[in-house]
Amino acid sequence: MSYIQKLEKIASQVRRDVLRMVNAPKSGHPGGSIGCADFMTALYFDILKHKAENFTIDGKNEDLFFLSNGHISPVWYSVLARSGYFPIEELASLRKIGTRLQGHPTNHDNLPGIRIASGSLGQGISVATGAALSKKLNKDNKFVYVLTGDGELQEGQIWEALMFAAARKVDNLIITVDYNKKQIDGSTDDVVSLGDLRAKFEAFGCKVIETNGNNMQELTNSLKEAKTLTGKGKPVAILMHTIMGKGVDFMENKHGWHGVAPNDEQLKNALSQLEETLGDY
Amino acid sequence: MKDTRSGFGAGLYEAAKENENIVAMCADLTGSLKMDKFKAEFPERFFQAGIAEANMISAAAGMTIGGKIPFVGTFAEFASGRVYDQIRQSVAYSGKNVKIAASHAGLTLGEDGATHQTMEDIALMKVLPGMVVINPCDFNQTKAATIAAARYNGPVYLRFGRPKVPVFTEENQKFEIGKAVKMKEGTDVTIFATGHLVYKSLEAYEILKQKGISAEIINIHTIKPLDVKAVIESVSKTKAVVTAEEHLFNGGLGDSIAQILALSLPTPMEYVAVNDKFGESGTGDQLMKKYDIDTENIVEAAIKVIGRK
Which of A160, A169, A173 would best serve as a mutation to test chain B binding (most B beta carbons within 10 A)? Predict the structure, then answer.
């Protein structure tokens, strides 16, 4: 089995995790989560230089990842648990009283793998930029990654952050965008059009790559290419064309699945479309 | 006469000499915040954020990851109201070691008018779980407070002002976060004051003394966590309270004191604060008088509250 096939198998399990996680409390955000399952799998199982044991907030000499669109926490929790940050069984506690797996991710309850709270949108690129500057001051040559949603790009702070990162030449920063063209109220074009996103990121001073965020081969190639573009005085941005709900036929490209959990029957149907590769929790 | 913002600038420089992890960010107000010396001496640790306060706060939170201790500077209105959500999520809830340096607070900002004169910031910041809120009274105390904030691990909102005011506390004083400072001992009324109103309370003390009234003056430089023990001890003795601050009635020092007294020692109390109004252009002195937060208002409030005993 090629390493790409191995990653695809992990991604299938991650999708199963996500759907089972949000089904249990009848609450959560499956659409963006499974749309980003390929990216999050590629990142945690191939790209990031990180260690799950003895997690520290500072993450010195490790690559860091920040999730700006905190509502897709289930996919992050899944890859963190599957990477060994915390017990896989803990995934069953999502959104339940007393859990460390809050609806939106937080470091407040000391969940390994998470360094700051997110949920209120638009703050992650700023946070990642700060962490990247901190790495530079510490002469730490690892990278800082951040994922944002596309609807989230309507927040003004995103553009403040890009302008700042470019002006300060933060070139150890890799910004990834879940470009699924969907948000709660409909398509991004209908809600408030993002226009020519590539041109916007370029105009704000980023080196831009576009990729298919649901094709493991293409995705891992692009993530590796992004690393080669660092250190050249500019932040790097990857626009990942994805499909909301990817992997489950009745969820694909349906913005209605942004923040609605599948019921038991829908879960059964969805799971029948996704191979159990690593064993359900 | 010196401005408290210069006390911040001096404290920041001292703290930065002591700890190389201290960094500073400023939203296009380096001169106003007196951060020039830090910038000149530690250029690699200074980050100009431009007129983009939301990004500055979140980026500062990010800089703590890796062990940096960022001081972010701008006018108090933009350091609180404008960026409330960023402070709430990325700093307070996330428990990040960010120091928010909020200058030009209150009416004494003066001529720029109400858009820039925040009198709501103490309320906004003290309501956040875990946030420390400090409002020192003069140059020396602001310098000491800045150094103390740098040594403290956790989010701090440090509020200070624009005008030159008397310097009346000790140089190189020991500053304990959360510890009230008794400025004058008295028996008839306790005046709890913060920021620029501390000096005005000392002026009021002399006037009251001439009238035969013995006022106890307590400087509450830390509004949160509040020195509950000092409040209860003093009020148990004087049985009458005046609070004085350059802030609105709602959510300020007065409300913090009133909450303690309501719960454990109900006592007649008067507020010297601005009552549910925005400010306007004028000199700081004119505005303090017009908005009833001047020395004579403290004197009147003290006489009134003693009459209510």
Answer: A160
Instruction: List CB contacts (< 8 A) between A120 and chain B.
Output: 85, 88-89
d(CA B151, CA B6): 19
Assess A139–B contact: CB distance below 8 Å, yes or no. Answer: no
Partner B contacted by A61 (CB < 8 A) = no
How far apart are the C-alpha atoms of B109 and A272, rounded to whole Å?
66
Q: B43 at the A interface (CB within 8 A)?
A: no
Contacts of residue A146, defined as CB under 8 A and 6 or more positions apart, other chains included, come to A65, A66, A67, A68, A124, A125, A127, A128, A173, A174, A175, A176
Going from the C-alpha of A61 to that of each of A68, A132, B68, B188, the distances in angstroms are 22, 12, 15, 61
3-state SS assignment for residue A17? helix
Q: How many residues does chain A have?
A: 281
pTM above 0.95, yes or no: yes
Could you tell me the two tokens for B5? 């913002």
Q: Do B50 and A167 touch (CB under 8 A)?
A: yes
Domains within chain B, CATH numbers bracketed: 2-165 (3.40.50.970), 181-306 (3.40.50.920)
Q: Which token pair is A228?
A: 């080669």
Task: Tell me how far apart the alpha carbons of residues B207 and B5 are, in angstroms, rounded to a whole number.
Answer: 29
Q: Do B58 and A161 touch (CB under 8 A)?
A: yes
B35 to chain A, closest Cα gap in Å: 19
Q: So what's the ipTM on this one? A: 0.97
The minimal CB distance from B62 to the residues A127, A140, A160 is found for A127
A contacts of B59 (beta carbons < 8 Å): 126-127, 129-130, 133, 161, 164
Cβ B162 vs Cβ B31: under 8 Å? no
A139 contact partners, CB below 8 Å, separation of at least 6: none
Full set of structural domains in chain A with CATH? 3-272 (3.40.50.970)
Q: Peptide bond before A235: cis, by omega within 30 degrees of 0? A: no
CA distance A39 to A45: 10
From first to last of the 309 residues of chain B, give the pLDDT tens digit.
Answer: 999 999 999 999 999 999 999 999 999 999 999 999 999 999 999 999 999 999 999 999 999 999 999 999 999 999 999 999 999 999 999 999 999 999 999 999 999 999 999 999 999 999 999 999 999 999 999 999 999 999 999 999 999 999 999 999 999 999 999 999 999 999 999 999 999 999 999 999 999 999 999 999 999 999 999 999 999 999 999 999 999 999 999 999 999 999 999 999 999 999 999 999 999 999 999 999 999 999 999 999 999 999 999
CB–CB contact B65 A108 (8 Å): no
